[in-house]
C-alpha cells in the first residue's frame, strides 16, 4: 500500500493503530465509576430518583450493582459514564478488539466540503 499510495499528494499520513480509545470496561474501572457516582449522588436513593430507575426497572440497592453501559439503557447511566470517561488521569483506557489495519489518510477527507 505504501508503494501504491506513498507518493500520492493527497495522502498525508497513515493510520496504523488499533482504534485506541480512552475507555475500559474492566472491574477496576467499574469500581472507579461506582465510587465516582457515590461521590456525586451521595445516596442510592438520590441516584435512583435522579435517574428514574423505577421507570427502567433497575432500581439499585447497592453501588456495586451499577454497570458500565455505553450504547443502550438508562439515559442517566449513559450520560454519567460519558461525563466520567474523559477525565484526565482517570486511568480509563482500552484498545478495541478489532483487527489491526493500515489505512491511508486522504487530505481530501480532511478538507471542508
In short:
With 113 residues, this protein is an alpha+beta fold. Helices cover 35% and strands 12% of the residues. Residues 87-107 have low confidence and may be disordered.
Description:
With 113 residues, the protein is an alpha+beta fold. It has two domains: 1-19 and 96-113, no CATH class; 23-93, no CATH class. 35% of the residues lie in helices and 12% in strands. The protein is built from five helices and four strands. The chain has helices at 2-5, 27-41, 44-50, 75-84, 107-110; strands at 11-15, 20-21, 94-95, 103-106. It has a two-stranded antiparallel sheet. Residues 87-107 have low confidence and may be disordered.
Key terms:
113 residues; alpha+beta; two-stranded antiparallel sheet; 5 helices; 35% helix; elongated
Element-by-element helix/strand order = HEEHHHEEH
Query: What structural category characterises the helix and strand content?
Result: alpha+beta
Q: Summarize the main sheet.
A: 2 strands, antiparallel
Q: How many H/I helical runs? A: 5
Strand content: 5-15%
| Cα radius of gyration in angstroms | 20 Å
Instruction: Estimate the global geometry from the Cα principal axes.
Output: elongated
Q: Which consecutive residue ranges, at least 5 long each, have pLDDT under 50?
A: 87-107
- The termini sit apart by 26 Å
**Fraction of residues in helix:** 25-40%
pLDDT average, as an integer? 75
Please indicate the count of domains: 2
Amino acid at each position: 500500500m505504501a508503494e501504491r499510495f506513498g507518493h500520492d499528494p493527497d495522502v498525508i499520513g497513515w493510520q496504523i493503530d488499533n482504534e485506541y480509545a480512552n475507555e475500559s470496561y474492566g472491574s477496576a474501572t467499574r469500581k472507579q465509576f461506582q465510587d465516582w457516582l457515590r461521590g456525586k449522588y451521595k445516596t442510592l436513593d438520590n441516584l435512583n430518583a435522579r435517574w428514574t430507575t423505577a421507570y427502567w426497572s433497575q432500581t439499585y440497592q447497592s453501588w456495586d450493582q451499577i454497570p458500565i453501559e455505553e450504547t443502550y439503557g438508562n439515559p442517566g447511566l449513559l450520560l454519567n459514564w460519558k461525563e466520567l470517561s474523559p477525565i484526565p488521569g482517570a486511568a480509563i483506557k482500552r484498545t478495541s478488539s478489532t483487527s489491526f489495519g493500515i489505512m491511508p489518510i486522504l487530505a481530501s477527507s480532511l478538507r471542508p466540503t
